[in-house]
Amino acid sequence: MGVPCSKFSLCCFHSNLKPSPHDFFDLENGGENGKNVLPSFTEFSLDVLMIATDGFAADNIVSEHGEKAPNVVYKGLLENGHWVAVKRFNRSAWPDSRQFLDEAKAVGNLRSERLANLLGCCCEGEQRLLVAEFMPNETLAKHLFHWDSQPMKWAMRLRVALYLAQAMEYCCNKGRAIYHDLNAYRILFDQDGNPRLSCFGLMKNSRDGKSYSTNLAFTPPEYMRTGRVTSESVVYSFGTMLLDLLSGKHIPPSHALDLIRVKNLTMLMDSCLEGDFSNDDGTELVRLATRCLQYEARERPNAKSLVNSLITIQKETEVLSHVLLGIKHGTATPPQPLVLTTTGEACLRRDLTALHEILQKTGYKDDEGIANELSFQMWTNQMQETLNSKKQGDAAFRAKDFMTAIECYTQFNDGGTMVSPTIYARRCLCYLMSDMAQEALGDAMQAQVISSEWPTAFYIQSVALFSLGMENDAQEALKEATKLEAKRSKT
After folding, report:
1. What InterPro entries has UniProt attached to this entry (predicted)?
2. How many CA atoms lie within 13 A of 341 on its CB side?
3. Which position among 26, 59, 181, 281 bears the catalytic label?
4. What is the pTM of this model?
């Protein structure tokens, strides 16, 4: 399933035009003069995404709560050199594979420069993954709440509000008005510093439209009654985003509305702005936020109305987004991931058949130089029995009779007259083939003890660790194996 990675042509959006608040490009219909057209929705294979993310390595996690998040987002590099964001759902999510695929394809049909667009998905076995454009310049939460060098400028805050409203309007026009858990972590900045709405929130979690990841302090009143997200609920969440932009903090709507009612706007506005905005602009944004946060859903404005209101108060429209954001254009490209060898890729995929072929092909050449206590026992009956057990084990290994191979290799090791890291590696693979991952790990570690700079010892150790669910440790073993193999190839 899926298209070979080398054929997946991703054309990232790079705008050389000065931003105009009055229009944006619909990439689905050709973008600017037919440029920047993204590829159609693709079904990726799990192997391709595992390689792209280094086996879902912890170092590649970019989602808010890291490994503790119920659904983790990773950065990944496809074989053709394009970066993607890969969202991996937990095993209990989306039990219906057809529902997941249908929902992903529906979201994947959207193409807009205001979205971090969904490029594809993967649905193999219990795995449910989404693949989207990678946005290299962090989230709105980072730039608004956790900034390092400078607070976000007022003109940029207004641009974020407009672009978000335009994203919402586009989705509404395409029949995808529902967005789950809209917050400052869902707004991402692309290579040009332009804000985009993550496509992941457009995926509903079930057919009844319920959302399972909502902070109750910021939920629309009707959600508390019905547990459902509607298009009006999304507008309410947009109102909370306007409060974020005004205050530079994530404050509950009830508290903000209390300040607005008593006309204490000074307490509401971000003190870091230091008069960077006019009172009229601030008042207009407060007015819009208040309209979005109306208790009655029918009294809230629609997305088109929000766009029209926000267009009129835009500032510094000739200034490029990356300048307003205070970043260098094209920065924040992630470091190059580990380049795996054929053996490494087989380990990452846990392709035991491929590993069996590799071990069989390499034979015992890596045992050369291993010290063995043979002395005068070499020609004794004990030695002959040991060699016979090795010979029988190798025959069983070739025939893929893994239980017999385990028995024969165990006799060889118990003989005590010879030490062979290859025997331990082969028995390790036999254990893996027989779903005995713990025993396999023991053999892999023993092979490492015998030959501490042997790449194969670390490779098979990584597979055993992957099988035991110890992904971080497996990644470290895989990195060490790759490093040792690269070192060996230079000598």
Report:
1. BSK, Kinase-like_dom_sf, Prot_kinase_dom, Ser-Thr/Tyr_kinase_cat_dom, TPR-like_helical_dom_sf, TPR_BSK1_C
2. 18
3. 181
4. 0.69
